Amino acid sequence: MKQKIAFVTPLYLPAPLSGSGVVVRELAESLTQKGYDCTVVTSDGLNARWWYDPIFGQEIKNKFEIINGVKVYRLNCKQLLSFICLVLVRHFKLLIPKPLFNKLQLLYSGPNLTGLANLLKKEKFDIIYSSPFPVYLNKQVADAIEKLTPRPEFILMPCFHSLLPDYHNPELKKVLEKADLIHVFSNVEKDDIKRIFQIPDRRFAVIPLFLNFSKMSDINQIKDKIANFKKKFKLKNKKIILFAGSKIRQKGVFTLVNTFKNLYKNDPSYVLITLGNATPEWNKCKKKRDLDFLLDLGYVEEKQKEIVFGACNIFCMPSLAESFGLTYLEAWHKKKPVIGANIPSVKELIDNARGGLLVRFGDEKDLERAIKRLVFDSSLAKKLGENGYRALVSNYDFLKVFSKNLKNILK
Fold this sequence. Notes:
The protein is an alpha/beta fold and 411 residues long. The protein contains 16 helices and 14 strands. It is globular, with a radius of gyration of 21 Å.
């Protein structure tokens, strides 16, 4: 009888996927092709706002469907509870005892899925794979698994951002302690979790993120599309810097915008292209009149995303909120140099590949120097992009990483 595997994740197709969501999709679809019985259990939200806001959030109507051979269950969110917790955490922090505040903070992060425990009990999965932190569904999974007989194997993929305060919530330790295996992307991530929560080394499997080259196009294959893209947006002879990610302060996008104001003032050939979902703060920022350098394309499909990566000169995501950085791999696939924040997880990736430059998070002058260095030293930019591509092929090819997943996870 083939193993039954459930991937529990906060958002799933057709919702835009984060790096952890891409991992879940690739694992679920590939394991299905190999004969495993794979299910994704997720929220019915098209975006995270739906978890606590039924008015301005967006919903996916289909509660069950099969996508690329994978069964997908979408569970309702306890939106009122999450909303109440959000209000308490944001406006009454000083009045709430710390232990209660920690619990409310995890609850408000959502999604709180209705009927999750009953579904896990009914389906009798052999393996339950849950991701990422600090969403509440991980605690729901951990609590539900303790009551199941026979008990399935519990694998956790925390995507741990050690420099963000929410990830130090003591409530997360209870989830980590119940996991049979903790899938981390790097040694840095493992060491951070061990140090903060005192989790023993034997509970970890270090398996990096990856790209599935079979689903991607070599830059030479899309030359014409890149040329058409540049023509459409009048980008010929422009210095194109690309950002791709959530438009939140921790990702460094606002530092990048402020840096560009000075770059563009002195040289109008600079263009900043941004990809990814908007936030209220980003929408407010875009209304300002001094952003003539900005081309914000929002969320784009994967094939279009590849064209934009192929068109840029430099990929820049000076982010504090990374446990690895899948988009750096996407840039290296198109042989582009990258700029990342000098934080341990990103430093490990970029330094090992010798594929880019590191800057101090939030330091506009440092970021400006790095951008100019790569713009005006084309031989260095070319070398770093090619180094990144070689590291990508050697270490982050899906087929190689996938085989390691099978060996470490499907014991």
